Amino acid sequence: MDVAFEPWSSDFVENPYPVYAELRERGRAHHFAPTDQWLVPRHADVSALLRDRRLGRAYTHRFTHEEFGRAAPAPGHEPFHVLNDHGMLDLEPPDHTRIRRLVSKAFTPRTVDKLRSYVEELADRLVRDLVADGGGDLLARVAEPLPVAVIAEMLGIPEGDRAPLRPWSADICGMYELRPSPEAARRAVRASVEFTEYLRELIAARRAAPGDDLISGLIAAHDQGDRLSEQEMISTCVLLLNAGHEATVNATVNGWWALFRNPGQLAALRADHGLVPTAVEELMRYDTPLQMFERWVLEDIEIDGTTIPRGAEIALLFGSANHDPEIFANPGVLDLARADNPHISFSAGIDYCIGAPLARMELAASMRALLTHAPTLRPAAEPVRTPNFVIRGLAALPVTL
Fold first, then answer.
1. Which of the four pLDDT bands, split at 50, 70 and 90, describes residue 222?
2. If DSSP codes are grouped into helix, strand and coil, which group holds residue 183?
3. Which of 153, 156, 158, 181 sits at 20 to 30 Å (Cα–Cα) from 244?
């Protein structure tokens, strides 16, 4: 492959979209030797493969590592893999189906709607505090605390226990990058151990004195039948926390940085707050928080005449799919009024984001609060992008009024 796909390059991470365009033009699947993965850049293929049961997030439900031609994870990484591999995102049916059915009860439109006043009041307070200080880091002051507090509230994590949640999450998510460093792996293992120990104690406390929260609900479902093991409960809580805020945090800062660089669109949004719902969707499409989603090939598949064998790994390029001109008119143009917007930022198929309604609510709430209370918001400095490729975001977004 002679396209400049360089996920460890800061220049590429800063703006991968021109390279994606070249990948789409050159074909439907490209072997990337450094990670031995097949890159899939087009929307139609990404959408179809997310629903293709010949692919899976895991393979050990059907094959041993040896049968699949893959090395077993390093023994020192076991705490991370135990935690990760028991979450529904990395399970296949029937375990995936069983856990998702239980958790989905907490994310029905009616249940999520009950959180609306809490979300809007918290967003309002965070933005007012930012305004009172004349600005600050939008990530640390608004984008991060809002979704972390909301998912912690749902899970029933006491307010005084919430400080380590974001650092634990960031360290665990470091293992989802391509070729994580030994130091990243060490941090992920440590965070996995600490988060697991904390949740084990919290589950024990909730078992003794149930509350009106998701952890108590999962315990009740477990105790009424053989549905969730304790490890499944712990892994589910970690997944909900990580997935419940990572995308929202990054969509918020990526989105506002995109707005600042498109002043005409920002002016239109400030003039018409009714654009907020379509703006949320367009900003998630325009600069996608999750750029890549990996799947294992469980049975040989064919893409554009190329057979991709069992045991291979496919990298579905969400960021590229969201800029495919076959699906989106003028995909490189930010259009907050874009009506037909089948972006794939929340995935699809059995892995469609269970918290998508909550994420949309949080993004809309913070956007409305900023438009209302900070109508002259502008960048105070050029932001620094994190070096991560898979989970795309900013290290900080300094703003002033």
1. low
2. helix
3. 181
What b/e sequence results for 350-359 when a residue is b if at least 16 CB atoms lie within 10 Å of its CB, and e otherwise? bbebbbbbbb
CA distance 164 to 190: 12
Rama region for 347: left / alpha / beta (φ>0; ψ in -120 to 50; rest): left
What's the confidence (pLDDT) of residue 224? 55
Domain boundaries, the chain: 10-400
In 313-355, which residue ranges form alpha helices assigned H by DSSP? 318-321
Q: What's the token pair of residue 172?
A: 């665990």
Q: What is the CA radius of gyration of the chain?
A: 21
Contact status, residue 141 vs residue 128, Cβ threshold 8 Å: no
pTM surpassing 0.90?
Answer: yes
3-state SS of 90-112 is HCCCCHHHHHHHHHHHHHCHHHH
CATH code matching the domain that covers 10-400, chosen among 1.10.630.10, 3.40.50.1370, 3.40.190.10, 1.20.1250.20: 1.10.630.10
Element (H, E) at 32: strand 30-32
**pLDDT value of residue 345:** 96
Identify any residues that bridge with 302 across adjacent strands, giving them in sequence order. 307
Would you state the structure tokens that stand for residue 214, as one six-digit string?
A: 């998701």
